[in-house]
Design goal:
Largest sheet: 8 strands, mixed
Helix content: 40-55%
Strand content: 15-25%
CATH topology of the largest domain: Beta-Lactamase
CATH class of the largest domain: Alpha Beta
Distance between the termini: 81 Å
Number of helices: 15
CATH superfamily of the largest domain: PAS domain
């Protein structure tokens, strides 16, 4: 008795020691992962800021080149040249000509200067000669230093024009080359709209500030809300990388100088929210911590329980476990005990019955939905919610099915529809797709959800083509049977959607939702338009993902219902 007691005491202490070591390892792992996540988030933010600088420089270079080309067009305009080369031309006539040219080329500000930099005319009445000092400085520098002239075509710089930040471009008028008779000046504002374009390109917030060398004193243009812009001005981030608290959160900032003509440099500040970068990692960390604590609690309780009386009942449990592992759920564990092991035996029998019921439900569910979705539903514990992922969605629909349903009796119609759906579904599953749902005679299929699939877009495209061929074969059979012919339309789109269990707390359905799903449905509807001459229409995103641009026939761009921007589409 005493030996058994000591054995159980030693065994309990050993289990507690192992549980303590496991807890220490789990906590250390959590701290290491959290630190690594913080470091990774900051590095990712800094990489985004570095890309943002490149996007800014590229956007400015593109804007300068556009203005320079516009100036070249004006300088080569025969009628305008003749007008300017006559010394007695009325300034109002010159201004009218500049207005016409500016409207034609879409330049915000256009001005004309003499070779000495004197203002002759411009497109803004409020822009007087006293405001044109930056233009005159740039003309003077370009005239005295030919290296400032890019290819002899133009010179550019940044400056304050009428108190606002602009990029300036001057273009010479040669008559003939290399004799310069006039200078065209162009100005494009560095304003909130320009900052918004940078944000769309780089997915970063942007601010242009004055006094960059001594800290930010005034925000000139930004994508930030007014309160955050004011806080940024007060914080005055240092040049280079720094961390600034704004609106209760931390932002990683990158500031670099923007040299100005005749003035102190301005500053370009790029911002990335560190809280946004860390949000996924923090959520994962909380989940890991909670799972660790729950796991330790369960493991400790289970270890203490199993430390008692592990002789014959344990052997019976082990033998019964082997039956369950082999898939035999018909055996029952006979262990009439009133203690924890007796309860464990009862729970084991209930679990075995539950596993048998689960298999029966899975078999039944697999006949109602795709096996992959059935597995996903069972693993997800039937909870509402989903995850964002890239999926290729295929919509197919029978044409004139309503007319067909009026001609056939219900039984024949259902038999024909099942015959059609059986063939199409087999093709979808053959190519790795999952049937999301049947909507009458329509099929909605997923490639890439709920299980990730390699080359999902290419698989969907191959499935659509085989469905088209299979329908032709089915129509030959129907024709031989004297039955009506069928026609289908297929639309395919690839995009990021939310995939998961949707519905109410009492009735769930695994599906995907998002703009990408709507677009696939709209593309299927476009196949009804005979002018496209195809039964399969795919979006540009699918064509690119499938690496099939060269194999598809372009159909141009179309603005489908519910979208404001046009989408390029292709016929397969």
């Amino acid at each position: 008795m005493s030996g058994g007691f000591h054995f159980r005491y030693f065994r309990t202490r050993l289990i507690v020691l192992i549980a303590g070591l496991l807890a220490l390892v789990q906590v250390a792992t959590y701290l290491i992962v959290s630190r690594a996540n913080n470091t990774s988030a900051r590095q990712h933010a800094e990489e985004s800021l570095d890309r943002g600088q490149r996007f800014f420089r590229e956007a400015v270079a593109v804007r300068i080149e556009v203005l320079a080309k516009s100036g070249g067009q004006m300088a080569n305009d025969y009628a305008l040249r003749q007008l300017l080369l006559h010394s007695d031309t009325d300034p109002r006539t010159i201004r009218s000509a500049l207005l016409n040219s500016a409207e034609r080329i879409g330049a915000p500000v256009v001005a004309l200067f003499t070779t000495d930099g004197d203002l002759m005319a411009n497109t803004r009445e409020d822009l007087t000669a006293e405001h044109c000092g930056p233009f005159q400085n740039l003309i003077s520098l370009a005239a005295s230093d030919e290296t400032r002239m890019t290819g002899g075509r133009f010179a550019s710089d940044f400056a304050y024009l009428d108190g606002r930040l602009h990029v300036l471009v001057i273009v010479p008028l040669y008559a003939p080359y290399p004799e310069i008779t006039h200078w065209f000046g162009f100005a494009s504002p560095i304003d909130d709209e320009f900052a918004s374009r940078i944000k769309r390109l780089a997915d970063l917030d942007v601010a242009f500030v004055s006094g960059a060398s001594a800290g930010a004193h005034r925000v000139l243009a930004t994508t930030l809300a007014p309160a955050m812009a004011a806080a940024l001005a007060r914080a005055a981030p240092r040049p280079g990388l720094s961390t600034v608290p704004l609106a209760g959160g931390e932002y990683v900032t990158s500031q670099f100088a923007l040299p100005l003509l005749g003035d102190d440099p301005a500053g370009v500040v790029l911002l990335r929210s560190l809280d946004v970068e860390l949000a996924p990692a923090r959520a994962l960390g909380r989940t890991i911590l909670l799972g660790t604590l729950l796991g330790l609690a369960v493991a400790t309780l289970a270890a203490l329980g199993l430390a008692r009386n592990l002789s014959r009942p344990v052997q019976q449990l082990a033998a019964h476990t082997r039956h369950v592992a082999a898939g035999d759920y018909s055996q029952r564990l006979d262990l009439p005990r009133a203690d924890e092991l007796g309860q464990l035996a009862t729970a084991f029998n209930q679990m075995t019955a539950g596993l048998a019921e689960r298999d029966r439900v899975r078999d039944l569910l697999g006949k109602v939905v795709s096996p992959e979705i059935a597995t996903q539903l069972l693993r997800s514990d039937l909870q509402l919610g989903g995850e964002e992922r890239e999926v290729t969605i295929l919509f197919s629909d029978l044409r004139d099915f309503t007319t067909l349903s009026e001609k056939l009796p219900p039984r024949e119609l259902l038999a024909l529809l099942n015959r059609y759906l059986d063939r199409m579904s087999a093709i979808v599953e053959k190519h790795g797709g999952v049937i999301d749902k049947y909507i009458g005679d329509a099929i909605m299929a997923l490639f890439g959800a709920p299980v990730a699939t390699e080359r999902a877009a290419a698989r969907a495209l191959a499935a659509a083509r085989e469905m088209k061929a299979a329908l032709a074969e089915l129509n030959r059979e129907l024709a031989a049977e004297g039955k009506p012919q069928l026609a289908l339309g297929i639309g395919i789109n690839t995009g990021r959607v939310v995939a998961g269990n949707m519905g109410s707390h009492t009735r769930l359905n695994y599906t995907v939702i998002g703009d990408g799903v709507n677009l696939a449905s709209r593309l299927e509807s476009l196949t009804k338009d005979a002018s496209y001459g195809t039964t399969i229409i795919v979006s540009e995103a699918t064509a690119v993902a499938a690496d099939a641009l060269d194999d598809l026939r372009p159909l141009g761009s179309v603005t489908v219902k519910g979208k404001t921007s046009a989408v390029k589409i292709f016929a397969a």
